[in-house]
């Protein structure tokens, strides 16, 4: 019985340098648009995420400064101010009645506690948002890698 396939599977076809250059050129021509597409898709994933993380960093810095300012206000209100002239007698107005209803206004400690709770809640929300975006971008990246692998 005669075989229809006269070429052996281990036989290599001879290519000229020009043919190899032409094949290589076609491969690069096909790869370049895919690389551009891949870069654009990665940029669409990376840059919004990077911008959001930078925003989170800035917001965290702002919250830390706000916390420090409140803390400074709190500590300055509780420090005893020294008299300008230590030799002078204490104020003669010792028995002044406060004209502001201090019983209905929250004290500095309560304000500080409220601000800290608010900051904590806000940071938790921002953290949850960031982790949600990380998961979405990771899934998108995996899908993109799978698409480019096909």
Automatic annotation (TrEMBL):
Name the record gives this protein: Uncharacterized protein
Domain of life: Eukaryota
Taxonomic classification: Eukaryota, Viridiplantae, Streptophyta, Embryophyta, Tracheophyta
């Amino acid at each position: 019985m005669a075989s229809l396939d006269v070429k052996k599977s281990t036989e290599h076809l001879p290519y000229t340098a020009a043919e190899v250059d032409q094949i290589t050129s076609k491969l690069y021509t096909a790869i370049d648009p895919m690389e551009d597409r891949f870069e654009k898709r990665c940029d669409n994933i990376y840059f919004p995420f990077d911008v959001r993380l930078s925003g989170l960093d800035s917001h965290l810095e702002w919250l830390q400064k706000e916390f420090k300012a409140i803390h400074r206000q709190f500590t300055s209100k509780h420090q005893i101010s020294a008299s300008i002239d230590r030799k002078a007698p204490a104020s003669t107005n010792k028995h002044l009645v406060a004209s502001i209803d201090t019983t209905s206004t929250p004290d500095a400690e309560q304000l500080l506690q409220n601000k800290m709770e608010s900051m904590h809640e806000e940071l938790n929300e921002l953290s949850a948002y960031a982790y949600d975006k990380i998961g979405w971008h990771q899934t998108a990246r995996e899908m993109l890698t799978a698409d480019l692998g096909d």
